[in-house]
Amino acid sequence: MLEELKKIEINAREALESADSEDALQHWHSKRLGRKSALMGVFNSMSKLTKEERPEVGRRANEVKMALEAVYEEKVAALKRATIQASLENEILDVTLPGRARARGRLHPITQTMRKIQSIFAEMGFQVYRSREVETDEYNFELLNFPKHHPARDMQDTYYTTKPGVILRTHTSPGQIHAMREYTPDPIRVILPGMCYRYEQVTTRAEMQFTQVEGLAVGQNITFGDLKGTLTDFARRFFGQSVRSRFRASYFPFTEPSAEMDIECFVCGGEGCSVCKHTGWLEILGSGMVHPTVLRNGGYDPEEFSGFAFGMGPERLTMLRHGITDIRYFWRNDLRFLEQF
Ligand code: DAH
Asked: Which runs of E-coded beta strand occur in the chain?
């Protein structure tokens, strides 16, 4: 029996030498020290030994068991150390390196301007009214008091579809007719933002595609004073409380009277510079009292109702605010430009 114990120990130690993974060690442990191991067999057969043999065999069996447990624990610890060492050597991580900054997206400068305009008018009680970009000649011109062959049509040449009379809108003004026809006879206070198209010679100041924000208020007793008050307040909120503004008589077929609004040049403070072309003023929008014919086309009786309207170009406002000299930057998708906003 003692001889057998010696053999068990030697075999086990030898087998442990070649166990060099966690799995192999586990396997070794259950084979050499588990319930069905040869060593446990010795413990189980103690009862068959004589009284004299028993203490000696028992002591030796315990010694072998403890010795094997000890070399096993040692081997497990050694393996763990080796694993950590290997990972330190192979997976080099310098925690003192600065992190890689993640590029953040941003809103297009025109979207930013659109949102600013929308939130200013929202505070004044205007709602956003969405209108179509593909229009009919009737809505884009006719109902806005531009009859066929009217000279004002010359300033807004457009793109035509293959369907006669269906065109891309040249301005957001046709949305006025849609809004009026939908809401009549209720009062209206809306802005209409969106994309417009013109068949234009593309230059630093003109693009074939651009945005506009239209405004329309219709109701009883709406006066030119309401128009001036609303737009003056808008200019202060958009450009700063101290900005000075003025209205100049103008002409649009769908408003009477009509006016263009200027703000004092904030580059030179009114002295005259290249941005304001030495006038001291910058034009920012067109406006006027809704023409009686347009009110009628929208379903409102001009004897009972009146209204004002205005239209502005977010590209132009953005150019003025940031001193941008070429309108073509906006839709060219050059990140070097867009990332500046
Ligand atoms: N639709 C005009 C344009 O694109 C701008 C405009 C002027 C709109 C006066 C208006 C307005 O509503 O009252 O040139």
From this structure: 127-128, 134-136, 166-168, 188-197, 209-219, 245-252, 255-264, 281-290, 306-312
Q: How far is the CA of 173 from the centre of ligand 1 (A)?
A: 6
The residues of the chain scoring below 70 in pLDDT are: none
**303-333: b or e for each residue (b if 16 or more CB lie within 10 Å)?**
eebbbbbbbbbbbbbbbbeeebeebebbeee
- Determine contact, residues 203/265, Cβ cutoff 8 Å: no
For the chain, the average pLDDT equals 94
pTM: 0.72
Cα of 260 vs centre of ligand 1, distance in Å, is 9
In eight-state DSSP terms, residue 324 is: -
Using DSSP bridges, classify how beta strands 188-197 and 127-128 pair: parallel, antiparallel or unpaired. Answer: parallel
Closest protein CA for atom 10 of ligand 1: 310
**How many A from CA of 257 to the centre of ligand 1?**
12
Nearest CA to ligand 1 atom 4: 171
